[in-house]
Design brief:
The structure is a single chain. This protein is mainly α. Helix content is about 45%, strand content about 0%. The chain has two domains: about 30 residues; about 130 residues, no CATH class. It is extended. It binds heme C (5 copies).
Length: about 220
Amino acid sequence: MAQVFPRSADMWLRLALFILIGGLFALFAALVVLDRSDYITDKGWVVQQLVPFSHEHHAGALKIDCRYCHDSVEVSPVAGLPPTYTCMSCHSQIWTGAQMLAPVRQSLARQEPLRWNRVSELPDYVYFHHGVHVNAGVGCETCHGQVDTMPLMYRAETFTMSWCVDCHQNPAPRLRPRDAVTEMGWSTSHDRQQLGERLIRENHIETQNLTDCYICHR
Ligand code: HEC
Ligand code: HEC
Ligand code: HEC
Ligand code: HEC
Ligand code: HEC
């Protein structure tokens, strides 16, 4: 029988198949890595704002407590963003002519709230509650990072499901006394696991069902 294909065709076919399958694997691996990467989760990306509000200045240098501006963080699901008059309590006296603050003055004059681009936001199908965490002794810093060193805000953690569940599996070593929740750079000489277990007992923190789906998806 006449040979239609040269003998080497078989080898080329194998090679092509090999490259194709290898390529598919590589693509799959790349997608898996990308799915968990900082690019997809926005971790570390600085968010630009109309007014370049600096936590480094206000929470760091000026030492204004988080709760002065995020005043529902201990009692409600949401922390709350400050209304314009909170800014104006100081900026009607200092930096009154600053160009940077023009949108703040405009917001006050027009009685329209300031618009801030969100940094940390969960999908609608996830239930979260600030008050519960803060009262259990999870510091702002544990989820939002060293906010007092951020000229512009960025996401310090991934905020993925595995990040939440990681802590829910064993929250003890991440807890601190309640009076230190807003403190940045908090540290202790105690063993974190032991301290956490004591806080769980003393503050009656419910850690039994924290990894059940309905806790976060209700
Ligand atoms: C003087 C008021 C003020 C103080 C004090 C303050 N913040 Fe803020 N915070 C803001 C404003 C305004 C925004 C919205 C602009 C931005 O994202 O930077 C904001 C945004 C945030 C965000 C991002 C929310 C999001 O998802 O968009 C976090 C997290 C946050 N603050 C945490 C803190 C923590 C923790 C402290 C204390 C260490 C603190 N803030 C102190 C005014 C304040
Ligand atoms: C307790 C007083 C106080 C409050 C409340 C306050 N600021 Fe300030 N802010 C200051 C002071 C003081 C400075 C000057 C900081 C410096 O130069 O060290 C400043 C500076 C600024 C600047 C100039 C850039 C910078 O950070 O140096 C902007 C913009 C600003 N504030 C926006 C805001 C906004 C928006 C709010 C409300 C969410 C706000 N401030 C609330 C005291 C305050
Ligand atoms: C257990 C993790 C965790 C802790 C602790 C925590 N946060 Fe948050 N924070 C989040 C998550 C998650 C979101 C996004 C919520 C959403 O989109 O529904 C958020 C959003 C915010 C926002 C913007 C939206 C809002 O809720 O108004 C602010 C401001 C904020 N946090 C401030 C704080 C401050 C201040 C503290 C400490 C007193 C704190 N957070 C403690 C996880 C945390
Ligand atoms: C650093 C630890 C930590 C992280 C991170 C964390 N949690 Fe929690 N969470 C806790 C602890 C501790 C409790 C138990 C509080 C209690 O029962 O007093 C809790 C309780 C809850 C509850 C129960 C509230 C209720 O009504 O009883 C929800 C919902 C929840 N977490 C959602 C989340 C979500 C969503 C995330 C991620 C975006 C998250 N948590 C990240 C520590 C954490
Ligand atoms: C401690 C909180 C928490 C618990 C418990 C939890 N989830 Fe989630 N889940 C989240 C968060 C936060 C997201 C959003 C992740 C994101 O935006 O990347 C999410 C996203 C999801 C999604 C969307 C797809 C995805 O992976 O992004 C599915 C499906 C899901 N969860 C199913 C479950 C199931 C099933 C369980 C129980 C075994 C469960 N979750 C338990 C917090 C939780």
